[in-house]
Amino acid sequence: MIARRTLIAGGAGLMLAGCEKVVQVPAARAILFAGEDMHRGLQRALQGRDALAPEYRRDQMSPIFRANGTFNPNTPDYNALVADKFAGYRLAVGGLADAPRSFTLVDLASMPARRQITRHDCVEGWSAIGEWQGPLLGTVLKAAGVWRSARYVVFRCFDLYGGQPYYESIDLVDAFHPQTILALAMNGRALDVAHGAPVRLRVERQLGYKHAKYVQSIEAVATLDGIGKGKGGYWEDNVDYDWYAGI
């Protein structure tokens, strides 16, 4: 099976125009997003459900790690949080959970943190290696008593697309993966606005569009029906990206 990393590198010239342009290049889209179920099944069968994404040394980190997607939600609510240095931020975690609750940044920062240096592969055709630090998503879900019988977790974000909060989802396999974290810091500093402050998802075995920025809430659900148009994410619903973007 050809790795998506290889396909991304080969298709970089087509992708640099931006995510929205992929839909205008059917051949490129077909290569990148061919067969969600087949790709997900084959990859997990070959790699194992706990396979780790490669990690790198500090001297391999990229000198520039460009931002992608939204650079600033720039809504009144978000701007108020920025002005207050995110002191009023609350991450709501609920849905199929025994103890739905909200977490402050202090709460999240007090949890055992994972630090990892990984490569971000964007569907636009670029990659960068950076360091991320934050609590395991699984730790946060356990603290809220999320049911292990739930199938997916849905992330809703502060940035707006078409006037609605951006959204994305992953399944519980990736949610409890040892490299899936809620990043609070990048390259040794608190996240800046362009890179998703105050909290962004890092799901290291998937393409960049799955790494939701500006995370506001997390909901455990049994089905993706009723989430957007039912495919589990903004790009999946509107640009026909695959829900599973494994690399």
Automatic annotation (TrEMBL):
SUPFAM superfamilies, per database record: Oxidoreductase molybdopterin-binding domain
Ranges for domain Oxidoreductase molybdopterin-binding: 86-221
Stated name of the protein: DMSO/TMAO reductase YedYZ molybdopterin-dependent catalytic subunit
